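Good morning C.,

I know you're traveling, so I'll keep this short. The sequence:
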Amino acid sequence: MRLSKPVLAAIVIAIVVIAGAVIYKAFIAKPVVKEVKVGVILPLTGPASKEGWIARHGIELAIEHINRQGGVKSLGGAKLVPIFADSAGKPEVGMAEAERLITVEKVHVLTGCYQSAVTLPVAGVAEKYKIPFMVADAISDKITEQGYKYVFRVHGKASWYGRDAVKFIVDMNKKYGTDFKKIALVYEDDEFGKSSAEGFKKYLKQLAPGYEIVIEESYPLAAADLTPLVTKVKAADPDVVVHVAYVSDAILFFRAMKTLNWCPKVYLGLGAAGQAHHDFIKGLGKDAEYVFTQTEWQPDLLLSPKLKGFKWVNDEYRQKYGEDMVGISADCYSSTWVLYYAIEKAGSLDPDKIRDALASIVMDLPSKEVNVILPYTKIDLTSEGQNPHTAICVAQILEGKFRIVWPVEFATVEAKWPIPSWEERG
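The tokens, ready to paste straight into the viewer:
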């Protein structure tokens, strides 16, 4: 049967229309994703700005490495684009910046905020707007205990730092045959300090019978002089000072100790914060020697067979920022990689799909897919968004460097225990 010209023309037109629709659906209806907007909230000014910039450097380097290797491949190589916001260390500012990043900048995910007091309200904002939030590097237990569905954390929480601080003191007393059981617990009075102190007290009672907190004192982060506080602590005659601090107040505390010519037998920074990075050493010089501090990462860890393959990461960080990575930068670097991995798995910018990908993450470490440089065996975000497989070390400042001394499986040198008095240092 021969088709008439009008019928033939109609068929041709139909074919063209159908083909056009297919082409539109394949190439136009699905616009190419060029970038993934990552909102980053940090204290870039204010009392914790030193730590805030270290966190920023870790996140920046991770994004540089992710984009260098091809970006998000499941999204056609879309690049991660960080949009930074300054909380100034103030919860209300952090909340406002989170709202702005989500509603104005239209970020696809959030990360930050370093300080627990800022992270808690920002987590509420992320939950309200259903935007995935990767916590970096705040440790308050409450952050992942609110029943939130969009909040995730790779690193440890405050009570675990308290637990491991108690274990460290007990282990070292046994190892060196000492009996240092009188403890001063001192902390800055925001959420980070309070939650860390509560965790320490809880586990001291459980794990260290016979140990005693002879004095407990808190102080405002903005304090300009801690001499009166140190005078009170000295009068209580503790063997061990356990101190939760940021850089600036840790330096103030130590300067007051020297002014008063007093040094406890052991000084331990709890929470892997102020005492655990280079500005503490720079600020005190030789006076920082022998300080113990909790840390989740120091270059010493690159000596282990498990992590030696990541030496290049620290080398690039040092070349770019002029110093080695520390726990803050390593946590933020690693957490950013895990966030990227979830976006890769989701293959979408839909926040619910990214959230579901985060909530399904279970991976053994080290991994070929993500650069998690922390000394963990595993990451599992399936329960409350909190990874339970964390590791907290203790470093001692020896000859101007952080050296891992505990636990034994990560230790690279013997500890100097107890620490020398000011007179013994000469």
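Safe travels,
E.
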